[in-house]
Fold this sequence. Notes:
The protein is an alpha/beta fold. Helices cover 38% and strands 15% of the residues.
Amino acid sequence: MNRELVPFNMEKMVEITKRYEKIYTENSPRALIQIRSCKNNGIINKEVKPLNAYKFPEDRDIYLDALAENSYMYSRFHERFDDDHIVSASPWYGIADLTGFLGGKVDFTADTSYHHQICENFADFRKLSLNKENNPWVELVSGGVKYMREKWGKYIPIAFDGADGPGDVANVIRGNDLFYDVYDYPDELPELMDFCAKAVNFTLDLQRAEATEVKGGYLAGFKTWMPGKCVGQLSEDFSTMVSPSVYEKHFLHALEKTVKDSSMAMMHVHSVGEQLIPLFTSVDKIKLFELSSDPNAPRAVETFRKYKKYFRDKVVEIAPTFDELINMEDILSENRIIVWYYAENEDDAKRAIEFVNKYRSD
């Protein structure tokens, strides 16, 4: 960058984390808001090429520098907002960066990546190992967190990306054969799921160890602050293709095992898979949920209203439009909600903040 960089304000961040501590620990209604982005902000971003235009791992540092610089520029712009977002930077190589450390073939597209099925034969998962030495994806992901912290960590906190849940890891290992495995290998499936639970914590532990610590916690779970040995974000997207009874019988235990030693966990749930919400919310350590709105599926606000009794003891992140937001007064006044807001401009951001801050209770 051709300008002097300004160190981030740790004191201000610590003040913000106090509001997160309250929303996690005090079971009383309150709301926070994160201005996750703001269009028309006048920032001239560093060019980030399509993912498939880079050669990884050779181009890792060039790519991560561009991500960090753009996040830093937004953090400087974002200082004008009285919200609860701690702007951070982290590596992101598409969805396959959550499981690439397991080996196998990964393809990049312009804006994401895909992990091909690793094991054609069920028993072959026993040949997989969790090894950080000479592992290019460990160098890309947790090594990338370390690189960003060492070079940029004085100027912007470095988050870690998260992981797939154990079921999604199994889905990468076995591909769509996993949906037959519950019938073909029901007695051996628990062994696979135990390995997947270990794999999730393998990558999370490596990433967390390199991220910026902020008041005893980390920016994880889609860059939301969480305390201690936090786990997130987790996703079990494959579960949109199975019934609740199949998930409960074959996969729920592995999810519980994944988070049992954590301080708390965060889970990402698609509205198209809303039928699994009662099971996901039954896991005590999963305290934070993010509800995504999917095409041709109910909006996240509708999903929350439908399943609100299951979120009674949880904190929920929702990304509403402004029209949805101003019709959420009952939700904001009766629950613990973190609003993700993607503003059209500065005025739009400030009106959303003003509306939500009535429910912040700090």
